[in-house]
């Protein structure tokens, strides 16, 4: 039994969770720099910064959708591979990796072709105006070149984390993000490439990350390796991966749908400046989500491996610890966003008019974010336990069932205009977080209230 296996089975859960989660939290925070740094630099382009920022923001639903497909295959396959490692079924785990690598390649080719062919009508449908469409297309047309890099770096990295190798997983993200941080000002301001420079910097950075993750997964150091023999389509494995990956796919793709609905509503009711405000709010949301994602990614191999090994007491402890940390963080961020929003939004724009709008709408948008900690940690627990159907329903609940209707209903019923649009987010967070907690108390008890099959030392 390898050292990483022994740690997953026997090391004290809080210590193990922190050791696995910290690299992932750092990785996710650094990953947030990809798009956030682009937005900050773009907002400071002389004369056109705010309009260019809004134009690039229109592209984000497409970027989220591309990432959603990497989550479909990567986050769908990694827990399955981890569970099989825990059950000592290494060959099955290996086949899952190869099938996902093949599927990610095909997916990248199809996405690139579709978005290149229909980019302009899609961007207009997503809320672009005549003033912002040029910036949106300039950014997107270059970004799409790197679609295959996004699929590999985001879709394969979970297989590194699933082995408990979170420091290697952190390096995958950190290398690309730091490179992007250095290339952005060079391409945007020194070479005067504007939004095209921001996109080019991102493509190069993602390419380096993709090479790093492939290099590790083809090396002898990896328990889950990419091989020619397993680089093939297996229908049985594919549908197993899809059935579990549909939940993170829904979470990511509905981010795209929600952003589009927000943009359309705000463009209609308030204009481009309010769409620009939504870009900033989305950037702050990334700063909140990335640490949560890192913590959940750190918890995933502990939950999945021990569930596969039948050590249910460690699974319960891992879920409880993750839940408490998630909730503590989101309560803190809620207080900051509601009472001291200027500490956050001033980083993203020098435009005083946009800052005035953000001071008004940020507390409305984030007042319910404290309950997202429950939604995030417990939905990840369902996913890590292989509960695809439950995870899917909960993924749909917050954004599709609650948030999207509320974006339209609240302004119409209360006659509150754009303020009602922003309030929809907080209300959906509270309702979804409460429902997810109740579901886990009921379903989780049935799954985990069992004696351990294997004795645990920690």
From TrEMBL:
Q: Where does the record place it? A: Cell membrane
GO MF annotation: an example? antiporter activity
- Topology in the membrane? Multi-pass membrane protein
Q: What is its main location?
A: membrane
Biological process terms from the Gene Ontology for this record are: response to antibiotic
Note one Pfam family from the annotation.
MatE
State the GO CC annotations. Answer: plasma membrane
Write out the transmembrane intervals: 48-75, 96-118, 138-156, 168-191, 197-217, 237-253, 273-292, 323-345, 357-378, 390-410, 430-448
State the UniProt keywords alphabetically: Antibiotic resistance, Cell membrane, Membrane, Transmembrane, Transmembrane helix, Transport
Leader peptide range in chain numbering: none
Q: What family does the database annotate?
A: Belongs to the multi antimicrobial extrusion (MATE) (TC 2.A.66.1) family. MepA subfamily.
Q: What is this protein called?
A: Multidrug export protein MepA
């Amino acid at each position: 039994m390898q050292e990483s296996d022994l740690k997953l089975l026997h090391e004290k859960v809080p210590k193990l969770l922190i050791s696995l989660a910290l690299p992932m939290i750092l990785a996710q925070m650094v990953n947030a720099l990809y798009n956030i740094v682009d937005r900050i630099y773009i907002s400071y382009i002389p004369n056109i910064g705010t309009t260019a920022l809004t134009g690039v923001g229109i592209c984000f639903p497409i970027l989220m959708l591309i990432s959603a497909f990497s989550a479909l295959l990567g986050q769908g396959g990694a827990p399955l591979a981890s569970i099989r490692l825990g059950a000592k079924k290494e060959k099955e785990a290996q086949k899952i990796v190869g099938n996902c690598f093949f599927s990610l390649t095909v997916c990248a080719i199809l996405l690139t072709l579709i978005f290149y062919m229909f980019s302009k009508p899609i961007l207009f449908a997503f809320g672009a105006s005549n003033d912002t469409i040029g910036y949106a297309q300039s950014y997107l047309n270059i970004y799409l070149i790197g679609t295959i890099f996004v699929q590999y770096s985001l879709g394969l990295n979970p297989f590194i984390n699933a082995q408990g190798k979170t420091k290697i997983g952190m390096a995958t993200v950190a290398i690309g993000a730091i490179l992007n941080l250095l290339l952005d000002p060079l391409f945007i301001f020194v070479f005067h490439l504007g939004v095209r420079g921001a996109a080019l910097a991102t493509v190069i950075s993602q390419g380096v990350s993709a090479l790093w993750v492939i290099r590790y997964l083809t090396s002898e150091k990896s328990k889950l390796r990419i091989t020619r023999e397993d680089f093939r389509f297996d229908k049985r494995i594919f549908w197993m991966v899809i059935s579990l990956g549909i939940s993170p796919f829904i979470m990511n793709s509905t981010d795209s749908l929600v952003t589009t609905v927000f943009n359309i509503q705000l463009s209609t009711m308030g204009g481009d400046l309010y769409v620009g405000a939504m870009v900033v709010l989305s950037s702050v949301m990334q700063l909140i989500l990335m640490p949560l994602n890192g913590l959940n990614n750190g918890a995933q191999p502990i939950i999945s491996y021990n569930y596969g090994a039948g050590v249910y007491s460690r699974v319960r402890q891992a879920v409880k610890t993750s839940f408490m940390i998630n909730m503590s963080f989101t309560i803190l961020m809620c207080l900051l966003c509601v009472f001291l929003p200027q500490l956050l939004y001033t980083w993203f724009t020098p435009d005083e008019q946009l800052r005035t709008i953000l001071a008004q709408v940020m507390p409305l948008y984030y007042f319910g974010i404290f309950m997202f900690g429950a939604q995030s940690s417990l939905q990840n627990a369902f996913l890590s336990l292989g509960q695809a159907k439950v995870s899917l329903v909960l993924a749909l609940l917050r954004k599709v069932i609650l948030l999207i209707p509320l974006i339209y209903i609240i302004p119409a019923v209360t006659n509150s205009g754009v303020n009602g649009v922003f309030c929809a987010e907080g209300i959906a967070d509270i309702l979804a977080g409460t429902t997810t907690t109740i579901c886990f108390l009921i379903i989780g008890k049935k799954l985990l209230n069992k004696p351990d099959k294997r004795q645990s030392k920690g």
